[in-house]
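Blinded run. Sample ID left blank on purpose so nobody reads anything into the name before looking at the predicted structure. Input follows.
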Amino acid sequence: MDAGSTTTRTRLPAVSLDAQGKRHIDWRAIFALVFPLFINNSIQSVLNLTDLWFIGRISSTATAAMGSIFYLTIVFTVFFGGVGMAVHTMVAQAYGGGRQVRAAQATWTGLWGAVLTLPFFVIIAFNGRVILAPFQLDPAIEAFALEYWLPRVLGGALNVALWGMTAFFNGTSRTRVTLIVMTCVTLANFPLNELFMFQFGWGMAGAGWATTAAQAIGIAIVIILFLRAPLRREFKSHLVWKPRLKLIWRAFALGMPMGLAATVDLIGFSIFMLLMARLGGPGAAATPIVMQLTSLAFAPAIGIALAGTTLVGQCIGAGDREWAMRCGNAIVKLCVAYMGMVGLVLALTGPWVVPIFVRADDPQAAAVISLALQLLWIAAAYQVFDATNLSTSFALRGAGDVRVPAAFLVVLSWGVFIPLCHILTFSEGQGLVGFLPHVGWGAAGGWIAAVIYVVLLACAMFTRWISGAWKKFGVVS
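Blinded prediction complete.
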């Protein structure tokens, strides 16, 4: 298809033409797409910090317990949730190509795929003790962790369904709808936490049930919006709900590498958090605080990166890969600028922010705060490279290039990050294994390992993106 044709121009996103008819990036259109996703993912970080704040009201041991399994609970959701991620790419490409009915069909396909994941989440939820046993957590931390594990993991299928349904609105550039839905989820989480944790007396388990219940509310809202009259007219969303095995298989084939890539990364950070928890004391409590604070950079940046999937996918669907490259590059610039700035601000404001998440009467309060402030500066160095990794990997998703990025993550996370984290963190006789060297830098060593890992990963992803290898991929939906 001729990149300059009228048909292509009308389908391409974020295009502005000058007086000579030359194409330029329409930054206002990009910001209109990005802003709701940015706010939405900022709200997600607020939701996580809300859980952390409520759990912090129990004890620093409860905070350490949440930190020890926070990423591990997400690991299983992300792995099986690849089908929900695939919906975004399929919808964006179908919409960019003017195939509205196929976009709606892809959305229902993602919902049916989420239903198929339910038995796996049930099995995992009831085997938390077996899964955590190899990490030899302190008994008090493990007891709290298991309370949170069951209800949080049981809600995994709901999370996958919510990703898939909101992916329709993201892929068709209706990102404000996603913002409305997730705002409702976050607002519901506040009173549900108070009700379940303290009024019902469920403690840590109440925090998990609150998140799961809030997601169920979100799914109900998004299905109602998806079936509204305007979308029924344009997309025939009420007519293509029946499951089609071929499309479900296609969604899993595309989504499993996406889920695997995210899972590998999350497993790496889950083990990182568990290793920090194994340190005990201030290191175990300071790390989840720093991780949740840096989510103020990471989570909104995912919103920016998701816009990259939408823009690249729509360009691929419209048949213009060169414009896809330009849109992807614009998203990379936005991500890097945002995460770099927030990382620096967090490090500078740490002395005022960190104490909010530590009980003043906790015996370890001063040590936890002091260590967290040091870690925030190491985490600030992490942000720019993580922004490059996020933005380029999500742009590659939009093109359907998912297998090579997944391979990068397997090699660098499991082959570099995890062993390096163990080496730099523990002293002799302190770690899980004895055959690795032991530097003994504590929590700071673990965070330095994370910086080295993300630098290597960012270089690999950025090289894949600028090489243009993804241009050989065709439309997947």
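Unblinding after everyone has recorded impressions. Residues 1-10 have pLDDT under 50 and may be disordered.
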